[in-house]
Amino acid sequence: MATLAHAPSRTGTGTGGRTGGGTGTPAPKGSVRHLGPNWYAAVMGTAIVANAGAALPFTAAGPRPAYQAVWALSALMLLTLLAARAVHWVRHGDQARRHLLDPAVAPFYGCTAMALLAVGGGTLAVGREVIGAPAALAADAVLWSLGTLVGLAAAAAIPYLMVTRHRIDPGSASPVWLLPLVAPMVSAALGPALVPYLPAGPWQRTLLFACYALFGMSLLATLLVLPLVLSRLIHHGPLPLALTPTLFLVLGPLGQSTTAVTNLAHVAPGVVDASLAPAMGAFAVLYGVPVMGFALLWLALATAMVVRAFRDGMGFAMTWWGFTFPLGTCVTGAAGLARQTGLGAFDGLAVALYALLVTAVAVAFTRTALGLARGHLLAPPRPVTP
């Protein structure tokens, strides 16, 4: 993948550590041959600005036009990227298959699902004021359903490929491995918004408990991978410079799981038995507060590693989009805890994290636009030395 530099992770493949494989021949300007699935991270990072903004503890209507503009931009980016990736599969099927068989690239197929889900959630949260409530609801229902199916497929298929087809060196665990596993958690966090629109009774309860199941499968899978990532850092040192921003990906399952349990607890009253709804609310707080604490600890660690990488000469890569969506999930998680606990401290945390999110998206978006204009980001990949 031309736009994601990373350390070689395969042995005996003859690829020279390149992410996209290919022949090494420079692609024509404007070619989509090296357009990988990691580009969906830009859609996710843009959409979460609108989604997280709508969750902030502001009642004034002033920021709404800005959120709507960002949502519209993310929707346009998604449509453009879906079309470009379709062309990629039709014209460069060999390269697309190499992406699936590359253990450093394949996990990014989880971004496809999360981009669909993020744009769908933003459509219902802020887009309804632009396209109308019925159209927004229909769009979110379609995108949530499609994103959930793609996410489940990625969560099962990518680990299967890692076991049966990929060749992974010992000590090469990467935060990127979390991407297909966290996609069902995004479904669990955004699915509750659809619950009130279903017929009361079994339909609502089915979706609610399905979201809890998605939460559980993603959480347990994440708990299996996180120790591998931490072990890799402790025993093998820092990640390659271009991969250092992926440390922020660990925040994704932390913030998104907190968002999921708080959103589920919020819609539970009136959907489940009166004796069960308070338990769901208590679980949201007892789970979310400790996890948010760990997220802040990891944020401090990841920030320190990024500062170190900057000092060592880390330049721009598409991995910088890894700063964005995970931060956004922490914003929505903190906002959800503020709603559940009534504590202003979580409101303040959400606002502070949102300021970091907007800054990160502005920088990543600007650098990406410049890279596209200059033709750098769609060039053939280059090997990276750890």
Sum this structure up briefly:
About 65% of the residues lie in helices and about 0% in strands. The protein is mainly alpha-helical and about 375 residues long.
Describe the structure.
With 386 residues, this protein is an all-alpha fold. The chain has eleven helices and no strands. The longest helix is centred in the middle third of the chain and has 35 residues. The chain starts with 39 loop residues before the first helix and ends in a 12-residue tail after the last helix. The N terminus is likely disordered.
CA radius of gyration is: 20 Å
Largest sheet: none
How far is it from the N-terminal to the C-terminal residue, by CA?
Answer: 17 Å
Mean pLDDT: 89
Helix content: 55-70%
Gross geometry: globular
- The low-confidence runs, each spanning 5 or more residues with pLDDT under 50, are 1-27
Number of strands: 0
Beta strand % = under 5%
Backbone structural class: mainly alpha
Tag the structure with descriptive keywords.
386 residues, 66% helix, mainly alpha, single chain
Topology (elements, then pairings):
Blueprint: H1 40-55, H2 64-91, H3 93-101, H4 109-131, H5 133-164, H6 179-190, H7 202-236, H8 251-267, H9 277-311, H10 324-341, H11 344-374
